[in-house]
Amino acid sequence: MDADVVDWITSNFLPFEAELRQMLRRVCASAEEIDDVVQEVYYKVLTLPSVEHVREPKAFLVRTAKNLVMDRIRRDAIVSMETMANLDELEIADGAPSPERVVLARAELNWVMGLIANLPARCKDVVHARRIDGLSQQETATALGLTEGIVEKEMYRGMQLISAMIGKVGMGAGAKAAGRRQKRTAGES
Amino acid sequence: MGTIDDAALKWALIHADRALTLEEGAEFDAWYAQDVRHKGAYLRAQGIHNALSRATVQENLRPRGAALARQPVAASLTLVAGNPRPPRRRALLALGALAAGLGLVALRLPLPWQAHDPILETAKGEFRKVPLADHSVASINSGSRLALRYTDQTRGIELQRGEAWFEVAKDKTKPFVVESGAVRVRAVGTAFGVRREAGGTEILVTEGVVAVSTGAADGAPVHLKAGERSFVADGAAGVEVQHNPDEVARRLAWREGKIIFMNHTLRDAVADFNRYSSRPIVIADRAIEERTLVGQYQIDAPERFARDIAAFLHVPVAVTAREIRIGRSI
User: Fold this and answer.
1) pLDDT tier at B329 (50, 70, 90 boundaries)?
2) Which of A20, B91, B96, B180 has a CB 3.0–4.6 Å from the CB of B201, allowing a cystine?
3) Closest alpha carbon within chain A to B293
4) Do B43 and A6 touch (CB under 8 A)?
């Protein structure tokens, strides 16, 4: 897969994903449908001839998501008035300026570090050793006194928890409430 | 997050680690081709993995690595109490983390503190990790001052200003006691931090147990276990204990050169940064003080923090030699 696209996703989509999911909540029927739409938006990014030409990533992502939801509505041919009204609101959000994206590329790193810091203890140690210290699975197992099987399992769990947090914790004003949810998520596991 | 995302994360992890076997390769190809959602989720998973990998760029977060630990240590250990020039911070932080990773195979030089109380002091923005005569180690935060009072009976330390974290060598015959104002924190073989603030003293325990007593005559010592913290206000008789390992770890993140925010207000964040920098951040706009933040910064990057915040909250930032001002000027 093209490294540019992955980089673009990392800087422009992940930090904004929680906010997009929040918007979709008003026009999607279920959590599964939100997952579907988000995955399809990622796929649309993948099929772009080039990400370089996307001037306003946030607006682009909202517009893409909206089009996908409309496609679904046309396909299903049943839609509530409420959903239609909420779809119009998406358009308004779409037009809102997004100067924060300028700093996103840098801030997102700090943001991800914050997510790592919020993982359960052993999981955090493993993710830290593997991704930040750059140790191999075997080195990590030796350094932390764990079996390789557990290192592998914790690394996967860490990715799952971070994936869940990325879906829930935005960078904007909603961070407080999202943070509480995120704490619970980390604690539940 | 559903099963598609989970599968995508799993594949992304395997791909990043090693070459797929023929069988796995076929399985992945089939999965990937099956649904556009799989392709999208896989791109997302790669992005998450990529975000974690990018964290490796931060130099001062690296030194825990095994590659570093294999290097000879003694050669880089030039740190002694009473060093006339503040050693360079980066090196020190790396050194500290390195020593921690090695279980402290530190080279300990004899310290000439028989004649009078030796003083350990750090300037603003300076961090030191100092091996003590009894093989305990003091990690000293920015802007702190400690007086060492080692006798045949006790290992006494007076925290006169600031904060330090102690890894105490076991010695049952000589209690290790840190005094901060009227508060006494006693330990036998443990690791804990003490922070002296304007209105009182904070105790953070990372290992073992410490006994905390206040100046009150009748008060029995209160025991704090690993993961517990307590703030004892000046003149308070009682000690309130709070169990919160995450918060203890967060508050001690300075040992790794980091500042971590978990939904903390901008006001608190700025106060944190200002502990370490002689060029303070000033919030000129009251309205933004209560905004909460999630994230992690290097302790020595207040300007970058300020610029991120300014762009994030859509407020101006002015950087001068004297201060960093966030928000509209008066």
Assistant:
1) low
2) B180
3) A175
4) yes
Instruction: Please compute the mean of the pLDDT values over residues B69-90 and round it to a whole number.
Output: 32
Residue B67: list chain A partners with CB under 8 A.
134
Query: Quick check: A148 and A165 in contact, CB under 8 A?
Result: no
Strand, coil or helix: B261? strand
Separation in Å, CA of B205 to nearest CA in chain A = 16
CB contact under 8 A, B312 and A43: no
| CB A92, CB B280: distance < 8 Å | no
Residue with more model confidence, B212 or A118: B212
Name the minimum distance, in Å, from the CA of A88 to any CA of chain B: 25
CA distance B295 to B308: 11
**What does the alpha-carbon distance between residue A176 and residue A171 come to, in Å, rounded to a whole number?**
10
- Yes or no: say if B60 and B298 are a contact pair by the CB < 8 Å rule: yes
pLDDT over threshold 50, residue A178: no
Which of A146, A170, A143 is closest to A157 using CA atoms?
A146
Antiparallel, parallel or unpaired: β B191-197 and B281-283 = unpaired
List the single residue in A31, A38, A111 with the smallest CB-CB distance to B295.
A111
What is the helix, strand, coil percentage profile of chain A, to 5? 80, 0, 20
- The torsion angle over the Cα atoms of residues B23, B28, B29 and B34, rounded to 10 degrees, is 130
Per-residue model confidence (pLDDT) at position B156? 93
Q: Provide the pLDDT for residue A69.
A: 86
Full-model pTM: 0.45
Nearest CB among B47, B61, B250 relative to A132 is that of B61
Q: Is it the case that residue B160 has pLDDT exceeding 90?
A: yes
Element (H, E) at B178: strand B176-180
Do B322 and B282 touch, CB atoms closer than 8 A?
A: no
**Selected residue of A11, A41, A42 to mutate for chain B interface (largest B Cβ count, 10 A):** A42
**Helix, strand, or coil here: B179?**
strand
A 80-109 near B (Cβ less than 8 A): 99-100, 102-103, 106-109
Using an 8 Å CB-CB cutoff, list chain A residues near B14. Answer: none
- A83: which 2 tokens? 């959903």
Write out pLDDT tens, residues A71-111. Answer: 887 776 555 556 666 666 665 554 444 444 444 444 555 66
Residues B61/A132, Cβ–Cβ less than 8 Å: yes
